Amino acid sequence: MLKPRSFLLLLLLLLGLQLTPLGAVAAPQDDPTAESAPDPATQLKAAQKQLDSMKQLVSKATTDTQLSKLRLATDDLVASMDKLSADLQPLQEKLQAQLDVLGPAPVAGALPETPAVAQQRNALNSSKKQLDDAVKRAQAIKTSAFDLGQQISDLRRVAFKTQLALNTGSILGVKFWTPVVQPSADDVQRLDQFNAEMKAAWDASWQDEWRYGTLALLALAVIVWSWGRYLSERFLAWVSIRFLPDGRLRRSFMAIITVAVTVFTTSIALNLLYYVFIRVQPLPVMLEDFAEGFNRLGIFCALIAGLGRAALSLNRPSWRLASLDNEVAAGLRYFSPLLAGLALAFGTVELINNVVSASLATTIFGNGLVAGLIGMVLLAAPLRGQRIRRRLEQQGAHLEKRTLVGGLVHIVTLVCSVVILLSLLVGYIAFARFLTYQLIWVVLVLMAFYFMVLFATDLCAALFSPQTVSGKMLKKTLSFKDRHLEQVAIITTALAKCSLLLLMIVALFNGSFGSTTPGSLMEKIVSILTGEGLQRFNIVPGNLLNAVICLAIGIYILRAVRRWLGSELLPKTISDVGIRASLVTLFSNIGYVLVILITLAALGIQWSNLAWIVSALSVGIGFGLQEIVKNFISGLILLTERPVKVGDMIGIGGVEGDVRRINVRATEIQLSDRSTMIVPNSQLISQNVRNATMGNAQGVVTIALTFPTSIDPEQVRNILLSAYNEYETILETPAPYVRFSQLGPDGIILSVTGYVPSPRMVGATKSELLFNILKLLRAQEVSLSSPQEVVFMKQQATRYQANEEEHSS
After folding, report:
1. Is residue 159 domain-shared with residue 197, that is, in the same domain?
2. C-alpha–C-alpha distance, residues 550 and 455, integer Å
3. How many domains does the chain have?
4. What count of other Cβ atoms lies within 10 Å of the Cβ of residue 280?
5. Last residue of a domain, one of 691, 725, 753
6. Per the domain annotation, does 23 fall within a domain?
7. For labeling, which of 150, 257, 660, 804 is most exposed (least CB within 10 Å)?
8. Could you tell me which residue ranges the Mechanosensitive ion channel MscS domain spans (predicted)?
9. Which of 96-105, 289-298, 338-347 has the lowest average pLDDT?
């Protein structure tokens, strides 16, 4: 309840307001934005239209000149929006002051205010709201224009890196050094912001509650990077000497370990350094991007240093894999750490330029500086190595012969280094930077591939060697022979080399220095394996292992069943050796076809997708594979119809021998001289074949002899029959017999015939019978007839001698 004095004061105030002229109070309301000429809404509408137009032009720009003009336009638009906001700020303050004088609207239950005061407050609030909206729109346009300017700068940097033929001026020109002498205000502002964020994160990590932890983490990072690497290499060297077998495996293992330990300890040290900052508070986006890029760059530089140390192997010269002399290696010892240090230092400069979105001029300066210094190091290294080799040759020292690959690397490095420096001098900085990074990347990939191939080869050779523990264990556990171990070693080595070769190709064509990681390489390989090339066959990479397992198990089961059939089941049947061999061969061929089908099914191949393969195969069968198919079908006929079987003695084309093996395509025939003739199966089906042993045929031994007409035929027949009857291999039934074959001018021809159990006994039996017959004939004083040719020659010789005697007399 109001007191009388308070009520009187409030009444006098209300009367004063009623008597005051309305124009005196509302004077500021007449034109609250009179000072903002032209109208802010008009300016904002024009600015928004200009911003939209610039966005369209940026999307269509193709040259750096166009992007540069658009970048200047965005800066002008940002400045105009700043000016507009600054012009509207006094009006906002004036309207706010007037609203403060009027005060807030009365609450419910209080004395009502006059309509004029309420109308004035509403007008002031409406004007202030319009000014606030105008300021917000100006800030939004300013932010969009600033972001567009950043995007234009990024596009210019990307275009600079990709447009290798862009000439931006020589490094000796004034334009190149302008960012150092007279840096742009935007670059200074962005670098100051980056430095401020870095300083804030550094100061936060050294606060009282975090100081000792920061000191401990930094000390631990230094210890891991230095002593941790040294002790790890010493320990792993002892492990290799203690547990690995003698040979090249120790050297290749130590080279891989040197690289791996260098990279691993550097990665741990960088992560400890990163944890120094993030344990206090989350890093800003700019510092987070810088930390991620710096970590990746540090690992690449550690890889450069590690590969250099592994290649030179200064502490263990006898373990050096590369063919380098000790003095040459000692002369090159500082180049790999120097190259790694330069790449880290100036790569960090380029990384900062990318993070803060520096101007194109600053980016060109950083790229040119990196390319120039690294190019000079890459040029100096092979020149120094060559100078040391030349000096040693003049001194008469025996030098290691340089390999073809080493010579190519030497020449390519020299040429690329010279090209890099010349490109910088003539103004092609983008090309020089690209060539520098590509040269470093190619050298890294090739060196890593070289060490990994040697290690994989030596590891497979040691694991499957009959002299090592692993090889002896495999021989004992799986009943392997030495040749089996050699085969497994060759296969695993080939698989390892193919995998490494695939990884190298993917790395060379899809990687770059400072940006590619092992994870990204694996993702690329997986994308290749899961690409459209395999999707058309519905092949899932996960099914590859299943297919390999099915193939291995199928071949093992097939060989086991084949061995069981050939050595256990079939020998206990009444079938002969030929039938058994034919059945085993037929079973093997059908089994291999089934194993292939099961493997393809496990691989996930849809048979509908193989229709084009079947069509192409049909065409090939009709033309190029006609003979192969004909021999294949003939082999199946031989195995099923069995006109010729294993063990038969056959004659074809004037050649006679024993059938040793009937394959699907050809048949192996062993001749009498132990040589083997390969006959296509189609010839055994289409040509006349003499099977001497078909149907248990007996061998026939026939000997034809020529006697003079003065002999007694009956006496000679008895002698021949006695010789046949007395020989043990001649069968009694059918009995031997002698036939009077011919009576001619040369004499009487008698042939004696007998039978032996097998045609294979004919040759040996005939030879023995000839010995016995000649012995019996001489014992009975029976002589053989002399050939007519011999008699004729003797008569001619007698006549010639008589003529000579007549002429001499």
Report:
1. no
2. 29
3. 4
4. 19
5. 691
6. no
7. 804
8. 628-693
9. 96-105
Give dist(CA 210, CA 214) in Å, integer: 6
Residues 707 and 747: their CA atoms lie apart, in Å, by 5
Query: Is the domain of 494 the same as that of 540?
Result: no
Reported as a single tens digit per residue, the pLDDT across 135-144 is: 888 888 878 8
User: How far is it, in rounded angstroms, from Cα 516 to Cα 512?
Assistant: 6
Are residues 300 and 367 part of one domain?
yes
Q: Which residue has the tokens 């750490």?
A: 337
Residue 641's closest CA among 591, 679, 684? 684
Answer yes or no: is 684 within a domain: yes
Q: Distance of alpha carbon 95 from its chain centroid, rounded?
A: 71
3-state secondary structure of 213: helix
CB 616 within 8 A of CB 547: no
Cross-strand bridge partners of residue 649: 658
Q: Report pTM.
A: 0.58
Q: Are residues 503 and 540 in the same domain?
A: no
Other beta carbons within 10 angstroms of residue 674's beta carbon come to 7
Which of 469, 495, 519 is where one domain is finished? 519
Cβ atoms within 10 Å of 122's Cβ, excluding its own: 11
Q: Is the pLDDT of residue 809 over 50?
A: no
Task: Please say whether the dihedral angle defined by the alpha carbons of residues 432, 437, 441 and 443, taken in this order, is positive or negative.
Answer: positive
Contact call for residues 354 and 293 (beta carbons, < 8 A)? yes
pLDDT score for 798: 47
Q: Are residues 495 and 623 in the same domain?
A: no
State both tokens at 420. Answer: 């890099």
CATH number assigned to the domain comprising residue 717: 3.30.70.100
Strand locations in 638-756 (E): 649-652, 655-662, 666-671, 676-680, 690-691, 699-707, 737-744, 747-756
Helices (H), 611-665: 611-622, 626-641
Q: Angle of helix 40-60 relative to helix 115-162, nearest 10 degrees?
A: 20
Q: Coil, strand or helix: which one is 699?
A: strand
Lowest mean pLDDT among 289-303, 433-447, 614-628, 734-748: 614-628
Residue 679, CA distances (Å) to 600, 639, 665, 672, 685 in order: 33, 15, 9, 16, 11
The verdict on residue 785 lying in a domain is yes
Q: What average pLDDT does this structure show over 335-352?
A: 86
Phi/psi for 702 (5° steps) reads -120, 130
- 124-183 pLDDT, tens digit each: 777 777 777 788 888 888 788 777 777 776 666 666 555 656 677 788 888 888 888 888
The Cα 564–Cα 551 span in angstroms is 20
- 163: helix, coil or strand? coil
Mean pLDDT of the chain: 78
Residues 308 and 330 in one domain: yes
The end-to-end CA distance of the chain, in Å, is 194
Burial class from Cβ neighbours inside 10 Å (0-12, 13-18, 19+) for residue 513 reads buried
Helix (H) and strand (E) counts in the chain: 28, 8
Residue 86's domain comprises 38-103+114-163
